[in-house]
Amino acid sequence: MDQITTSIAPATRAAPKPATTGSTGEGTSSVTKRLSNELMTLMMSASPGISAFPRSDSNLFDWVGTIEGPAGTIYSGLKWKISIHFPPNYPYAPPVIKYDTPCYHPNVDINSGAICLDILQDKWSAVYSVQTILLSLQSLLGEPNNASPLNPDAANLWAKPDEFKTQIMKFYRPIAE
């Protein structure tokens, strides 16, 4: 995962801007514009296996997405639904992302869907976009960070592909199209 984070990470990190308070027109307007641009970029991209869009036309801050397991990994052929909630000071603070479909993975809490990924926490940068986040999450499926597991049982089984796949399928629930 280090190689992916490095390849999309900015050369320098800008200091985070303070959170907008309340519903100031200017703050909300700039976040709305950024999210609209990211949605358009994501819709126009040819990134296979990832998608995301607002749950409704009336709320650009609450999205639903899907991530397909990358080819050549133990997750190949499977698809997960995720929730993405953008804070009012996005992109200066990361979105809150969680798996809605149970995902047995070393860096995902099987019960809550919480994700342990550095770019969604202490390594966040305003240059990241929804697309780069989704690509990082997809990559994480095949390259977990077992040194910092959120699910220690999954981390311990990672080196045993047959047992690991059995656990994936025990928890996996196909999403309705």
Automatic annotation (TrEMBL):
Species the sequence originates in: Cristinia sonorae
Cite the residue spans of the region called Disordered. Answer: 1-31
Q: Which SUPFAM superfamilies match?
A: UBC-like
Q: Which UniProt keywords apply?
A: ATP-binding, Nucleotide-binding, Transferase, Ubl conjugation pathway
Taxonomically, what lineage is the organism?
Eukaryota, Fungi, Dikarya, Basidiomycota, Agaricomycotina
Question: Which PROSITE patterns does the UniProt record give?
Answer: UBC_1, UBC_2
The UniProt entry, under PANTHER family, shows:
UBIQUITIN-CONJUGATING ENZYME E2
InterPro entries according to UniProt = Ub_conjugating_enzyme, UBC, UBQ-conjugating_AS, UBQ-conjugating_enzyme/RWD
Could you identify this protein by its name?
Ubiquitin-conjugating enzyme/RWD-like protein
Q: Which GO terms describe its molecular function?
A: ATP binding; transferase activity
Q: Where is the composition biased (Low complexity)?
A: 9-31
Q: Please verify whether the record's keywords include Iron.
A: no
Active-site residues annotated for this sequence: 116
Which positions fall inside the UBC core domain? Answer: 30-177
The similarity comment for this entry is: Belongs to the ubiquitin-conjugating enzyme family.
Q: Which CDD domains match?
A: UBCc_UBE2C (cd23791)
